[in-house]
Amino acid sequence: MPGKMVVIFGASAVLWIMFAASQAFKIETSPEYRTLAQIGDSVSLTCSTTGCESPSFSWRTQIDSPLNGKVRNEGTKSILTMDPVRFENEHSYLCTATCGSGKEEKGIQVDIYSFPKDPEIHLSAPLQVGKPVTVKCLAPDVYPFDRLEMSLLKGDSLMKNQEFLEDMDKKSLETKSLEITFTPVIEDIGKVLVCRAKLHIDEINPKERETVKELQVYISPKNTAISVHPSTSLQEGDAVTMTCSSEGLPAPEILWSKKLDNGNLQLLSGNATLTLIAMRMEDSGIYVCEGINPVGRNRKEVELIVQEKPFTVDIVPGPRVTAQVGGSVVLTCAVEGCESPSFSWRTQIDSPLSGTVRSEGAMSTLTLNPVSFDHEHSYLCTVTCRQKKLEKGIQVELYFAPKDTTILVSPSHVLVEGSPVNLTCSSDGFPAPKILWSRQLNGGELQPLSEDTTLTIISTKIEDSGIYVCEGINQAGISKNTVELIIQVSPKDIQLTVFPSESVKEGDTVIISCTCGNLPETWIILKKKAETGDTVLKSVGGAYTIRKAQLEDAGVYECESKNEVGSQLRSLTLDVKGRENNKDYFSPELLVLYCVSSLIIPAIGMIIYFARKANMKGSYSLVEAQKSKV
Fold first, then answer.
1. Residue 82's closest CA among 35, 17, 23, 128?
2. Which residues touch 577 (CB under 8 Å, ≥6 apart)?
3. Residue 519's pLDDT band (cuts 50, 70, 90)
4. Strand 414-416 to strand 477-488: parallel, antiparallel, or no bridges (unpaired)?
5. Which DSSP string do the residues of 360-416 spell out, in sequence order?
6. Which of 565, 579, 581, 473 is nearest to 521 (CA)?
7. Domain that holds residue 251
8. Nearest C-alpha neighbor of 570 from the set 562, 561, 581
9. Are residues 201 and 36 in contact, defined by beta-carbon separation less than 8 angstroms?
10. What does the pLDDT average to over 452-460?
11. Are the beta carbons of 272 and 308 closer than 8 angstroms?
């Protein structure tokens, strides 16, 4: 029995030792079950054992994804560090410890979030009483945003609250905003805007951030007013004080300006009070006071009138003077109402005077001699008297006589009646000459026609022929040129006559006459028509005489009147009757006819000559025509 008892006791001891050893090997984690880690921060998970001197450790995620961290083992402790924390670190991490045949495992849930900054408050514009403004509250780089709640308060009053419960498509950092529009009132001065953001990732202690912004409420300047002492109507040498006030929040800055002639403002002062001393006439004008603050401006205007004292300046020969190039001109500046004036001359563009100044008493002269193109300026005479300045100006304009007057005729100076013609005239001079068109009459006098550069005749007539005169005229003189227009027409009004008649007796004297009463340069040709060919007749002044008509003189006679433009024809038939018994006899009637004919023929010749002289200047006789044209 004792032997059996010893055996039993030894087996029990071994079992007890093994049980004690198994109870002593334990594993613990820190944090114990769950930890929150902010993206970008660093977090460490610690796994430690008790009851084992040399344990071995291993880490893994519950879904066997990469650890995305570094493991460091130190005896009975193993540390998993994630630096920086990223989206990939959101897992349940398992730590396994092995000691001999013993093995222990424990997990830690790592939840990540991003809530790195306080909210931001943005205003769409400065806060101005009575004008709507939009306030935006921003929570930047939030994760997970579906657990975000934002509130916007004005003082203790909640203006808006919003929860962002929409689904997240993916893991990402989001900036969320809360926006509201309100109209500031005067009571908002001194209040604050509070933007509060909560991230509900810890049910017991949610993450919370807030930003506070004091309301700076503005009032645009208004009710700007000006007071003037002693008056807005002043005399030269007086002083004036102008004070300006303007309401607004913050208190407006005061700016004084003077309105220039072009409408622009010339800044004078940034003080509420503007004092002007020793006023001059040029100080007259409109003065502007502006109240200005960050949200607006308001202006008020006042006009000051500074009256001059009895002191005048005059300039001779007047505000403008014309001077001939190469000549001489004297400009005189005279003062009335000042005993000892001082003078100065200048050009308006401050170019050299190029003249001689002489001042004596109340008068000063500027002499330009000889006058050149450099003298064409506006000259200013400045007079100073009793610390007062007055200025008078005179414009010197130069001129030289017209020259090189030219005439251009289009299409030509020789035209066919009915054609249009343009006569264009130009003339050099300074100032630019005035153009005057005239027509020269028979007596030599000129008939004015036009003052245009171009003289146009739409449809020319024969009576438009003649000499046309163009004159270039300015105050220095006249330059002229002439052109002759020649208007040609076709022959017309041709007349073919026979004396004594178209039916005569054999032996009679017959005169065939052809006249054309229109133009010179006209050829008259008499012909006798025949089947064998026309015979050109020798005529004198368009008249052909048959002394003793024969039967063979009967037939058709044709007259042709022509010039370079055209021609016209006339014809008649001469009938010659034979005598009875074919005898020659001499009757008293024939004698009378012969005598009359001897008088008429010279008369007709004279008539034709004078007619051609008066109405057909430039006509040619048939003899001459035959020599040169036929």
1. 35
2. 503, 504, 505, 506
3. low
4. parallel
5. ETTEEEEEE-S--GGG-SEEEEEEEETTEEEEEEEEEEEEEEEEEEEEEEES-SEEE
6. 565
7. 219-307
8. 561
9. yes
10. 92
11. no
Domain's final residue, options 183, 215, 247: 215
pLDDT tens sequence across 576-592: 898 764 444 444 444 44
Residue 124, Ramachandran bin (φ over 0: left; ψ between -120 and 50: alpha; else beta): alpha
Classify residue 10: in a domain, yes or no. Answer: no
Residue 3 domain-assigned (yes or no): no
Which helix (H) or strand (E) covers residue 274, if one does?
Answer: strand 273-276
This prediction's pTM = 0.43
- CA pair distance 27, 4, nearest whole angstrom: 40
Place of tokens 């013993």: 102
d(CA 72, CA 68): 14
Q: How far does Cα 200 stand from its chain's mean position?
A: 63
Residue from 184, 194, 186 nearest 214 by CA: 194
Q: Of 220, 258, 194, nearest to 128 (Cα)? A: 220
DSSP 8: H
Find the CATH number of the domain harbouring 241.
Answer: 2.60.40.10
- CA gap 364, 340 in Å, rounded: 12
Closest by CA position to 249, among listed 359, 128, 349:
128
Phi/psi of residue 387, nearest 5 degrees: 60, 20
pLDDT digits (tens, 9 = 90+) for 77-104: 999 999 999 999 999 999 999 998 889 9
What is the pLDDT at residue 113? Answer: 94
Neighbouring C-alpha atoms within 13 Å toward the C-beta of 553: 24
**pLDDT of 526 above 70:** yes
In the predicted structure, residue 518 carries a pLDDT above the cut 90: no
Beta strands in 174-216 (DSSP E): 174-182, 192-199, 207-214
Instruction: Give residue 394's pLDDT.
Output: 92
Residue closest to 523 by CA, chosen among 421, 442, 621, 591:
621
Domain boundary among 344, 364, 398: 398
Number of domain units in the chain: 6
Residue 14 covered by a domain: no
Q: What is the DSSP string of 546-599?
A: ESS--GGG-EEEEEEEE-SS-EEEEEEEEEEEPPGGG-----HHHHHHHHHHHH
Residue found under tokens 């002043």: 234
- Same domain, yes or no: 512 and 599: yes
Burial status of residue 626 (CB atoms within 10 A of its CB: 0-12, 13-18, 19 or more): middle
**The tokens of 366 are what?**
């500027």
